[in-house]
Structures are given as C-alpha cells and as structure tokens.
Design brief:
The protein is α+β, with helices and mostly antiparallel strands and 264 residues long. 36% of the residues lie in helices and 17% in strands. The chain folds into 2 domains: 82 residues, Phosphorylase Kinase, domain 1, CATH 3.30.200.20; 165 residues, Aminoglycoside phosphotransferase (APH), C-terminal lobe (Aminoglycoside 3'-phosphotransferase, Chain: A, domain 2, Alpha-Beta Complex). The chain has 8 helices and 10 strands. α6 packs antiparallel against α7.
C-alpha cells in the first residue's frame, strides 16, 4: 500500500493550482539529490534545493531544456511547468505509464526487458542530433569531473566496490589517463540505468530522468546500462544487450565511462 504524504515545502502558485487537493506519494527510486513525487492525477513533480555551485545536480533548469529538446526525438515525459522560487527548482511533468525495467525478475520478463532496453538504446543513438542544445564530448566531461573534484562534490561513500577507499584526486588522474581519443557524437540519455527506462511488458514506453542527456559518445549510455543490467540480472545479459544493439564490446570506453560516473 503506497503512503500518501504531505509535501514538506510550499509549492509555487502555478504548480499548486494544478495539484491542489490531489493525493501524492514520494517516489523513492533513484540516487540523485532531487525529490520526486507522483500525484494521483498523473503528474510527477521533481524538485531540488537549488545550488549554484553544483552545475549538474544543483538545478533542474538543464533538465527542463532537455525535455523540450527531446520531445520530438524520443519518448519522454511532457514538461508541464518549470518554476524557480527563492530556494528551489520545480519540474512538473506528465507520467509515462508503465514500470521501470529493473522491476522485471523472471527469465521471460528479463528477456523481454533486455529487448526493450536495447530498442531504447537504438532509438536514442539513431535520433537526430542536429540542433540539440547540449554537446558533451570527452574534453567537456573531463572538465566537469575536474571541477566536481575541486569543489568537493564527489561522493566517495558511493563508489563502486572496486574503487572503495580511493581519493577523488586519484580517480581523476586515472580518468584523464584512460580517456578515449574518439567520440562518435550520437544523442545519449546520459544516465541510462534500468530504473530510467520505462517499459510495458517487452515494449519500450520511454525514458525518465533525462537531466544529463547530450550529444555524446554512445558508450556513455552503454557502459552504465551494462553495469545496471549486470547488477540486476547478471553478466550474461550484457552480451545479449550488445548483440541487440549491434555494437561490439569496447573495453576502453566501458572502463572510462563507468569511471566517469563516479564523479557524478
């Protein structure tokens, strides 16, 4: 039974008018600092205490821009309102009806979900990049990681098991050392883990949490997707994912982009 909650902050009037008197529940899935609430009228609210220092996660303005730019390219929630007050950003969106891919557990469900996730990868990576407002090549991502280390924004308590105990500075040195020379410039989700892919049975519904979408290297998606697939369903499904995507395994880029994620 889901828990009905009262919001611990006052909504801006523009948003309040759309959800007044509607029950809501907090959505607990995900690792970001943002809070997400689902209203019974099919709207989702994402909100974060705004931080000018954290250019990636301290504001939702970039996600609002991305939602608008993505809507003609891939299936994403419809942006209803983006509002800022003195301390918070608020993103009000429509619901994608389905369930996140990580909810699939039986062999048959997983097989269908892998096919849906692969279809999602292909859809993103074959979408039109011309005119998309955010481009993040390897050099841009390296500079973002460097800045997050300098500002003390790297969460060392959330490192992957094989990197536990290492300092952000040590990880950054490795990141620069293993950075790939090539970038194939496709449209990427930027955080393509299973909870961000919405499916219905074995059919792809769409994508959520698109605040890092950009024109970037396809392995930025594939690396995180493979890590999520292995963690949820086992390593054997990673090979099936790549086969369905029509992509050969690239150890160098797999290493770089999973390491890069430690900084975000």
């Amino acid at each position: 039974m889901r828990s009905i909650v009262s919001l611990p902050f006052e909504l801006p009037d523009e948003i309040g008018r759309l959800v007044h008197g509607v029950n809501c529940a907090r959505v607990g899935l995900g690792c970001s600092s943002a809070a997400v609430y689902r209203f019974d009228n099919g709207l989702y609210l994402k909100t974060v205490v705004r931080s000018i220092e954290d250019e990636v996660f301290g504001t939702l303005e970039g996600e609002a821009r991305r939602l608008e730019a993505l809507k003609e390219r891939v299936p994403v929630p419809q942006l209803r309102l983006f509002v800022q007050d003195n301390s918070r950003d608020y993103l009000l969106m429509t619901e994608l009806v389905g369930e996140h891919a990580a909810a699939k557990v039986t062999h048959g469900e997983v097989s269908g979900a892998v096919a849906a996730v692969a279809a999602g990868c292909r859809l993103f990576h074959h979408a039109e990049v011309q005119g998309f407002p955010i481009v993040e090549d390897v050099s841009t991502l390296l500079e973002q990681a460097k800045r997050r280390v300098e500002l003390g924004l790297v969460d060392t308590a959330d490192l992957d098991e094989e990197r536990v105990g290492r300092s952000p500075e040590d990880l950054l040195e490795e990141l620069f050392r293993v950075a790939p020379a090539g970038n194939d410039a496709v449209l990427t989700h930027g955080d393509l883990c299973l909870p961000n892919v919405i499916v219905h049975g074995s059919e792809l519904v769409g994508f959520v949490d698109v605040g890092r979408a950009a024109v970037s290297d396809r392995w930025r998606d594939l690396a995180l997707c493979m890590r999520s697939v292995e963690a949820n369903w086992g390593r054997k499904w990673c090979s099936e994912l790549l086969r369905l995507c029509g992509v050969e395994r690239h150890e160098g880029k797999l290493h770089f982009y999973t390491l890069l994620d430690e900084f975000f």
